[in-house]
Task: structure prediction
Amino acid sequence: MLNVVTVNTKPYEGQKPGTSGLRKKVKVFLQENYTENFIQSILDANKESLVGCTLVVGGDGRYLVKEVVDKIVKICAGNGVAKLLVGQNGILSTPAVSCIIRKYKTLGGIVLTASHNPGGINNDFGIKFNCSNGGPAPDATTNEIYNLTTRIAQYKIVPNLVCPVDKIGVQTFKVDDHEFVVEVIDSVRDYVDYMKEIFDFPKIKSLILGSEQKKPFKVLIDSMSGVTGPYVKEIFITELGASEASVRRVVPLEDFGGAHPDPNLTYAADLVKEVSNGDYDFGAAFDGDGDRNMIIGRKAFFVTPSDSLAVLADNIECIPYFKRGAGVRGFARSMPTAAAVDRVALKKGKEMFEVPTGWKYFGNLMDAGRLSLCGEESFGTGSDHVREKDGIWAVLAWLSVLATTGRSVQETLEAHWSQYGRNYFTRYDYEECASEPCGEMMKALEQKMSSAGFVGSTHEAGGKSYVVKLADNFSYMDPIDQSVAMKQGLRIIFEDGSRIVLRLSGTGSAGATVRLYIDSYEAKEVNGDAQVMLKPLIDVALAISQLQRYTGREAPTVIT
Result:
């Protein structure tokens, strides 16, 4: 029999979860009791339901995942948890965690990821809690977890429990007077089975393999050495018949091969170059934990996440899942995301929701049966099949549309723009800036926006004029539970529908990340060069915000 040990500890400052959990440098998590404190606080926030419950545990394979899985097993054993479902070798994509929580009706899950942030001993790690609906914990829960971290005095652990997670199977332990079970599960199987229910795999397979009448549709799928590698191999090679040459970087690595696992034009430049120079019809990349995606067409024709969401909304009937059950309900986007999907919702007569950044804000709407499809400009797209954004789902959704319509990626976008107009969109990221001047900038800009005469003022650049229609610090009241999220980002909306948004991000691990979003709407000139079309509004945004002066940066770290 194994015994529970109570360990005395002291609080650490700053264990406040951001939009998707607690993210810090690896060396911060390596401090004595730092990780243990946060895990215990997650469990204490669920103490009324903890004894006898089942939890899911897994992560994106980055440095420290295996060690922290071991700590979670021992601490859960010490706190009365009855059973853990653990991904083999600690591997589970974030969408797969959501899928498994929902399938097996568990209390929730602990996800070990810093998402799209770099990995390795000198980079980032993260821990977040997902609730019983499979989605990220809401503000009330994360606030409670944080409050508990500020006063924690002890944690419970079973230090002598040894539980290998490299082989699939069930392990049972006697801990004091109760039984504790750890089931190591196939990291891929449940998720892949679910995708086969949602999509018409034979139809997608016939697209990829081609026929006597149609040449094969060549794809190149890049897992960026993140967690999606095993899922990509099973789905695209085993199930859909693509060749080994159709996938790249499919072995999860603790440091993501030294690369930055963020699927955008900057960090997935190798994929973009290969598709641009090669004979490929379609390219896609995923981030470290598998919830983000980037879509490109032949010759690396780029699909913005905002356009991707709008196209999928307009062609949602191409996905069999939405022909069953309740069918298609509403659409939603995060506030900084370009408003392309809004016009699709209007045409289809569907509810349209604008929520703060953070996938957790979509969960209540889905659970209430009011939301089917949603997305964020930060390369996240998903539906109510789970409660996380889902990169592989988004790629399969696109392939479903292309298989049904017979169009290429570029033809699909051009047809969409000709009908709805085009939201030229970009995001400028200024990473790891000094926090104090960034805070001053946001304060000064908000004061300017609220001053007399700002609404109605005209701003000119590059031969274009923009008249301010609305200016505010975005706030959101959840229509389901009436919870309120304040100060979610400064937005300036112009009379032609164009927008400027400025936010301080909560997903980094050091310093402040300033994000500037430019959404320039054109009803007719839809085939212009994006950089040329965006420049006037970018110049207006930089002039109004004085961003370069406050950050001390002449150029952003990343442009997407």
User: Anything to note?
Assistant: The mean pLDDT is 95. The chain has 18 helices and 27 strands. The CA atoms of residues 39 and 89 lie 19 Å apart.
